[in-house]
Amino acid sequence: MEEEQKRETYGSLVSLADLAKAADNPERRELIINGTRVNADGEPVKPTEEEKGAAKVIEILLLISWVIAFIVLLGFSQLDKLLGFAAFGYIMLSAGSLAIVKTGLSEPMLLILPYVGALMTGIPISLIYERKHPGALPFTFDKPTILSLIFYSMAAVGALLIISQFSKTIRLKRRCTERVSAKCIYLNYTIEHSGSGMTRRAYKRTSPVWQYEYGGDIYVTSEYSYGGNEAGLGSICDLYVSESAPTLIYRPSKTKLMIVTVVGILWTALSLYALTVIK
């Protein structure tokens, strides 16, 4: 039971230490885990002062902005609910944007979180501005206008999902040309449900973490993309990595491309249909 807990984690909250322990590393060499060089125990090798300083500034600014957003959300939302919506939207927008930056948009579905956050931030701020400066905006924010804006932007996000998935696949094929043999040493997973009542079913979607060697270094890289159970613990497969950035990996999957395409088409079609209903 203990071994299973070390090899699987719900979500993507696995630590560097857990991945280092899961790695096949009997010689206790240094590892490069998701771009971070660590020792055999998962402790980061000391970064340069420039890298440390830049990362610290970004973390402090992000933390301050979140604290301000929470203060507005908890303290001022009773006075003006629009401010509360805008603050909550900003938290979703910044968290989603951070996830995209961290994963390099490896999962196009991540676009939905910052999209919702942008709507929840932009619309309330525009309404507040319109209230303070009547007639200053080139359009009015009545209910039909807001609904049209939401559904048009939803259709755009659906199209962007399809475009980003295809562009990501093309980009990875071009950049990742070096083939390596990789072993799945860890699984991040989520539990999702479908149906309701007697037909309700739970199913597990996994995201593998791969170990491979390239250029004399051992890499442990998370795929950051949830699918079926096609990759199990200990399974071996051929990955393609970038010669200049070996943490960038590509594992061909027609199923993943098809799923994102279908979701994008449905998302866009339903949004456009909703527009015809409200008009």
List keywords for this structure.
279 residues; 2 domains; 8-stranded mixed β-sheet; globular
Description:
The structure is a single chain. The protein has 279 residues and is an alpha+beta fold. It folds into 2 domains: 2-46 and 176-251, no CATH class; 49-141, no CATH class. 51% of the residues lie in helices and 20% in strands. The chain has 7 helices and 8 strands, in the order αβαββααααβββββα. It has helices at residues 2-7, 16-22, 49-76, 81-103, 112-132, 143-175, 254-278, and strands spanning 8-10, 31-33, 36-38, 176-194, 201-214, 217-222, 236-242, 249-250. Strands 1, 2, 3, 4, 5, 6, 7 and 8 form an 8-stranded mixed sheet that branches. Helix 3 packs antiparallel against helix 4, helix 4 runs antiparallel to helix 5 (112-132) and helix 6 packs antiparallel against helix 7 (254-278). The longest helix has 33 residues, at 143-175. Mean pLDDT is 79; it is low at 1-5.
Terminal Cα span: 57 Å
What's the SSE pattern?
A: HEHEEHHHHEEEEEH
Secondary-structure content class: alpha+beta
Which stretches of 5+ consecutive residues score pLDDT under 50? 1-5
Strand content: 15-25%
Radius of gyration: 22 Å
How many structural domains in the coordinates?
A: 2
Helix content: 40-55%
Oligomer: single chain
Query: Count of helical segments?
Result: 7
* Main pleated sheet: 8 strands, mixed
Output mean pLDDT: 79
Count the E strands.
8
Shape: globular
